Amino acid sequence: ETTTPAPFTVIPNRRPASDEERWLAMEDPVFGKVFTDHMARATWRDGEGWTQRRIVPLAPLPMHPGAAVLHYAQQAFEGLKAYRHEDDSIHLFRPERNAARLAASARRLALPELPAEDFLASLEELVTIDQQWVPGTPGASLYLRPLLIATEPSLLVQPSDEVDYLVTASPVGAYIATGDQGASIWVSKGYHRANAGGTGEAKTAGNYAASMLPQLEAKAHGCQQVLFLDAKEDRYVEELGGMNLMAVRADGTVLTPSLSGTILPGVTRDSILTLLKDSGRTVEERDIELAEILEGIEAGEIVELFACGTAAVVTAIGRLVSDDFDVTVGDGSPGPVGAEMVGALTDIQYGRAEDTHGWLHRV
Ligand code: COI
């Protein structure tokens, strides 16, 4: 069915956080643990389409214990950020990409697609009403978490006839604390993230749920993050628990796994590939064997590894570890290409550099 976009009705929170509560909450927020005063919502019913577009006070969701999302994880989500510029204007970064990816995830999860106009309107209106929650400190931003959930009370394994769309907002700083050493990464041998034909390229809860046990395994080995290999041959590097991977060769070429259907098409991944090409570098998107990376590091041909994502931006990788190897990339410290990319990307996001690609969407 077709739906016509309509503005979101605003029902303001009568008891918003006081200035002092907000300042305290925003001082050094743990990623995703602080939430603003409002959330966006819309409701879909089979036959009716999307209705009840609204911005409401943040509150727990009354939900039937039989709601399909609780049993079969029929859901999809997004992650993007709003940035405050020096002139106090607020900008979303490439939100159209997130709209398109949420629609693609929705198709894979047999959920209704939310029109891009509604997606953008929900973000603009939520950020506007909660604008005091958008941090102005360097490196901080307002992380937006759009969500589609199947709410029909039904234990039948079939698409829900009721779906809720929600957006929460969280002031955030760094996702992973970065130091003068790059992160140590555990290469998972026993576990895989996604298989061909599965949900690996959709942004859906199950992929992240499946990464938690391997992530614990990583922690147990003194590593901050896990890197997955392909499920079919156990040979090619895919992605980390919530970030895409990039490798820099000594000749300056940058390698990254191609979007084969099992990895998430990251917006930060795409933006960095574009910025790398802008800076005259050669980028290779292709299958990359773990052996190529390990041998390359040993031979000094791979000189830098980093991970990238919306939440984490760029995380330098200093070490790759598994049962049968432990290799340090260069001297283990963050490399220049990752640093250059954080600079180039955040300069655009925070309005310090010209937005030549038209990536910013002013709220
Ligand atoms: C993001 O980067 O926005 C994600 O959704 C990844 C998650 C690990 C926080």
TrEMBL record:
Its cofactor is pyridoxal 5'-phosphate. Keywords: Amino-acid biosynthesis, Aminotransferase, Branched-chain amino acid biosynthesis, Pyridoxal phosphate, Transferase. It catalyses: L-valine + 2-oxoglutarate = 3-methyl-2-oxobutanoate + L-glutamate; L-leucine + 2-oxoglutarate = 4-methyl-2-oxopentanoate + L-glutamate; L-isoleucine + 2-oxoglutarate = (S)-3-methyl-2-oxopentanoate + L-glutamate. Belongs to the class-IV pyridoxal-phosphate-dependent aminotransferase family. One of its GO terms (molecular function) is branched-chain-amino-acid transaminase activity. Its EC number is 2.6.1.42. It holds the Pfam family Aminotran_4. This is branched-chain-amino-acid transaminase. It comes from the Bacteria. NCBIfam families: ilvE_II, PRK13357.1. It is an enzyme of class 2 (transferase). InterPro entries: Aminotrans_IV (IPR001544), Aminotransferase-like (IPR036038), B_amino_transII (IPR005786), BCAT-like_C (IPR043132), BCAT-like_N (IPR043131), BCAT_family (IPR033939). Pathway: Amino-acid biosynthesis; L-valine biosynthesis; L-valine from pyruvate: step 4/4; Amino-acid biosynthesis; L-isoleucine biosynthesis; L-isoleucine from 2-oxobutanoate: step 4/4; Amino-acid biosynthesis; L-leucine biosynthesis; L-leucine from 3-methyl-2-oxobutanoate: step 4/4. GO terms for biological process: amino acid biosynthetic process; branched-chain amino acid biosynthetic process. The modification N6-(pyridoxal phosphate)lysine is found at residue 203.
